[in-house]
């Protein structure tokens, strides 16, 4: 389904990390009414304790996406300098394959066009010249520091920023499942989280094997784990309960709302499953999804090719998610981020190399959408004198500014100094 991490045109580090399983190296820790649709569980699952907190969805674009293409700063004249991107620059609105205007300065490339309705609805915002201030251009280091929330700091713990948040607030429901990674293993952002599990395909989460022997085999496993005592016993029981919870949802018969049409890709499949879980009201507080393949060192394919395909996958499925969850949007915040951006100039292989500043997206009913947040110095942040280390877009808005504002205002957690240590955020007004 779709473009996988190993199909990208990435550097050796990125491909090696994909093969070894980058996420595993981060020391992940697992800690109805009568008229309801048929796919909903036939039981009360959530009994919410705190309905004011949003469900948080985090989409991580692994590989370092080219933010200069994903959100085009066509108003910066330096983008069209003949030595910068003569082949890869998305032209201004009105030109062939030109950008779709957002605000008179920024635009969407054609492949990101499906996001325009959500942007115009006021429920989708972009942030540009943002990201981690850490100068690392190593995929592994940049992702790890970003997901632990400790850029420019020594690594003193292996707890992710989402896990820290969950440890500071009570569960929103009465279930054992607080967070799910729609992946084979937990991302670093969830490392150390209680009630968080990785499940790549919840449609197959039922206890495996012949149904007639399931009770006996499960009882044997539960008994075996119980002999070890806590924390292993309670962790194992929590996983069994979470899998039971997921098995109670009839994912196969889930019908998206509003005519939403997810693409038949791995990313579209994951977003659709997450939508079903959110609507099932199972007490889920966080869902994370990865979309890899953005390490475009050669043949980037801005208009047709690798990156165009990925941008269409991202934008089309986010647009479907927005339509599908329109009735839940006031209790939902979705963030999109990546470890770093690409260099401002294209290389001789018609790609872009590891850079620095990037873009983010934020979607939700309480997101100040319909605008692009940026500190684009003098309208010419791509000027050679303003480039980071002389070759890349600078970071003028720390990604923690955006995330901290969401954590405090939409997740009801004011303990930001414990989520992002040694950092004082500057709120940008991303939430309303």
Write a short abstract of this structure.
The protein is α/β, with parallel strands linked by helices. The protein is built from twelve helices and eleven strands.
Question: Can you offer a commentary on this structure?
Answer:
α9 (about 265-280) packs parallel to α10. Strands 1, 4, 5, 6, 7, 8, 9, 10 and 11 form a 9-stranded mixed β-sheet that branches. A two-stranded antiparallel ribbon has the order 2-3. The protein has helices at about 10-20, 20-25, 65-70, 115-120, 140-150, 160-170, 215-225, 230-245, 265-280, 305-325, 400-410, 415-420; strands at about 55-60, 100, 105-110, 125-130, 180, 195-200, 285-290, 330-340, 360-365, 370-375, 395-400. The protein has one domain. Helices cover about 25% and strands about 10% of the residues. The radius of gyration is 21 Å and the shape is globular. With about 425 residues, it is α/β, with parallel strands linked by helices.
Layout of helices and strands:
Layout: H1 12-20, H2 22-25, E1 55-62, H3 67-70, E2 100-101, E3 107-108, H4 116-120, E4 124-131, H5 139-148, H6 161-168, E5 179-181, E6 196-198, H7 214-226, H8 232-247, H9 266-280, E7 286-292, H10 306-324, E8 332-338, E9 358-364, E10 372-373, E11 397-398, H11 399-409, H12 416-419
Parallel strand pairs: 1-7, 1-8, 4-10, 4-11, 5-6, 5-7
Antiparallel strand pairs: 2-3, 4-9, 8-9
Helix pairs in contact: 9-10
């Amino acid at each position: 389904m779709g473009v996988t991490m190993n199909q990208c045109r990435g550097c050796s580090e990125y491909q090696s990390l994909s093969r070894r399983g980058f996420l595993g190296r981060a020391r992940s820790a697992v800690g109805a009414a009568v008229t309801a649709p048929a796919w909903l569980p036939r039981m009360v699952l959530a009994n919410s304790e705190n309905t004011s907190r949003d469900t948080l969805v985090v989409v991580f674009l692994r590989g370092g996406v080219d933010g200069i293409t994903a959100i085009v700063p066509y108003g910066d004249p330096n983008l069209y300098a003949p030595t910068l991107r003569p082949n890869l620059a998305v032209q201004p609105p009105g030109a062939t394959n030109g950008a779709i205007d957002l605000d008179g300065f920024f635009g969407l490339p054609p492949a990101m066009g499906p996001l325009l309705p959500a942007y115009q609805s006021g429920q989708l915002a972009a942030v540009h010249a943002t990201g981690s201030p850490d100068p690392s251009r190593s995929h592994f280091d940049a992702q790890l520091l970003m997901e632990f929330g400790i850029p420019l700091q020594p690594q003193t713990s292996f707890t992710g920023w989402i896990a820290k948040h969950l440890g500071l607030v009570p569960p929103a429901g009465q279930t054992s499942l607080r967070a799910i990674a729609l992946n084979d293993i937990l991302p670093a952002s969830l490392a150390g989280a209680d009630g968080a599990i990785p499940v790549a395909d919840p449609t197959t989460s039922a206890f495996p094997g012949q149904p007639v022997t399931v009770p006996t085999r499960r009882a044997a496993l539960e008994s075996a784990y119980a002999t070890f005592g806590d924390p292993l016993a309670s962790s194992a029981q929590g996983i069994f309960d979470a899998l039971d919870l997921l098995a109670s949802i009839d994912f196969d018969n889930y019908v998206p709302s509003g005519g939403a049409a997810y693409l038949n890709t791995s990313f579209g499949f994951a977003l659709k499953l997450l939508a079903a879980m959110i609507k099932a009201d199972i007490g889920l507080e966080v869902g994370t999804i990865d979309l890899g393949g953005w390490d475009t060192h050669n043949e980037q394919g801005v208009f047709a090719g690798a990156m165009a395909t990925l941008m269409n996958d991202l934008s089309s499925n986010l647009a479907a998610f927005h339509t599908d969850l329109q009735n839940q949007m006031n209790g939902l915040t979705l963030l999109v981020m990546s470890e770093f951006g690409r260099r401002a100039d294209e290389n001789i292989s018609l790609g872009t190399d590891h850079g620095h500043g990037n873009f983010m997206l934020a979607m939700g009913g309480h997101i100040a959408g319909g605008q692009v947040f940026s500190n684009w110095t003098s309208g010419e942040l791509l000027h050679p004198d303003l480039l980071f280390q002389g070759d890349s877009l600078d970071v003028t808005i720390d990604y923690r500014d955006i995330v901290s504002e969401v954590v405090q205002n939409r997740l009801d957690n004011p303990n930001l100094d414990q989520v992002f240590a040694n950092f004082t955020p500057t709120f940008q007004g991303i939430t309303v």
